[in-house]
Request: fold
Amino acid sequence: MKKIQLLVITICCFWISASAQNRFPAIDKSPMDMIYFPINYPVLKIQNKATDPLIMRVCYSRPQKNGRTVFGELVEFGKVWRLGANEATEIELFRDVKIGTNKLKKGRYTVYAIPTVDKWTIIFNKETDIWGAFQYDAKKDVLRVDIKPEKSTENIEAFSMAFEKLGTGCQLVIGWDDVVAKLPFSW
Reply:
């Protein structure tokens, strides 16, 4: 009887150990990333080198091109796109900003795009924590601005975003495949 109890306990321990290893999902094909302005703000902050306050951060997923035609096929022209993959891209503003002459208040927003060949309409929407653009609701838009996409000098395999400092603010540089679009911010 003790041998059977020991065997059952041993099997349960192995089963618990094996199932504990399966609790984490596989690595996503479109990993999530986060960028800050000022650039590298968290690292500068812990090194006591941050000279400016945190202005904004963007959280987005980075799909890969994988030999596909991106704009016009994978990302359809004229349709709302989550500006990345998986969860819709979000921006958090830690102060009021301007995009051109348009004001955008401090807060957290989902960012969508409607790309075409000649322009991208960038949309800031107050609905956050949303997956994809499947439940996009234009009634919750806070701001729409148009920017002009440009041909990139390089082929960008992974969808990417980065901030570039400008004299009066910064610009969010968005790139994938052979396209780059820049969204200017000032304050």
Summary: The mean pLDDT is 91. The beta strands are 32-37, 56-61, 90-93, 97-99, 102-104, 107-115, 120-125, 141-147, 150-166, 169-186. The first helix runs from residue 2 to 21.
